[in-house]
Amino acid sequence: MTEVEIPQEPVLSPLEAFVRAAREELEEVQRKLNEITMLVEQSQGEVDKLTQRNAAITVELHQLQANFDTVPREDIRATYEAAQDAQQRLFTMRGQLEKLESDKANLERHASFIRRTLQLLEGGPSLEIADEEDERFIETGIEDVIEAQEEERRKISRQIHDGPAQALSNFILQAEIAMRLFDTDPERAREELANLKEAAASTFSQVRDFIFDLRPMMLDDLGLVPTVRRYTEAFKDKTGLDVSLVATGSERRLEAHREVMVFRAIQELLGNVRDHAQATQAKVMLDMDEHQVRVVVEDNGRGFDPAILKSDPPPGRGLIILQDRIAKMGGELEIDSQEEGGTRIAFAIPSGD
Hints:
Heat Shock Protein 90, five-stranded mixed beta sheet, 11% strand
């Protein structure tokens, strides 16, 4: 009986095995990219619809103001509640779209990196082509910086539109209600004015927070430590989180871009504690010596596995971007976190003196 020989796959060299794995990874990334592109398009369509609905309800509110005496009170309340619902849905959907666009950008960068790697390993590009690729990567880095700036502006624009701008529109309606009630129900009119005053105070507080987040004037006038002290106190008041600050070393002014970077980093880390850690306490330590500025932010909340930051795509971009910025300034960031033991994140950058 003749034995049937079973063909065996050729043994691949380590380089060939790597190339094959890279191509499979590229196919998988491209598949995910196609899926998330479709989700982005669907979400953008939903945002457009909600934006139109929000605009239509705003028009209805203005019509109510013009015909206040003839519109039933229940209709006023129903339109008011519909406006609030539309604003909340739009805010939520925009957040979802923002997350999808972030994930898509991460996948596109990952796919671009794999393609470039395969080109270098398989195609053997000339030095001229490689230089062109390097230039393109530099351009991409500049584009990322510009896009980050624009995204921050879009975020602030949405916050102002969905917060103070809508609140100011509602102030007009509340003031109109109070004016109409003065002759028929003075007590009810006083209640409406009290509600208007409370809403105005809350909106004013939001505007001050936006201004502070955009660019705290204290940072220019007084420097890093007083600004961080003011921020942690305000953060404690707003969130109810027990936040403490310990500032040590030689308190002094730094170059403006270093002060901004350290302040924004502390903002990002405290924001993560507020949004994700489920903590009751947080501590910020800021030390300035002759050669470096060192910051530690730790909390007693729910930790996480730092390895997830290396996943593709990562669950969030904040820490990744922060880590990259610190590295570009010649510093380093360390993460120590356990799921049940809280989180401690430390970073240090040269003081530039």
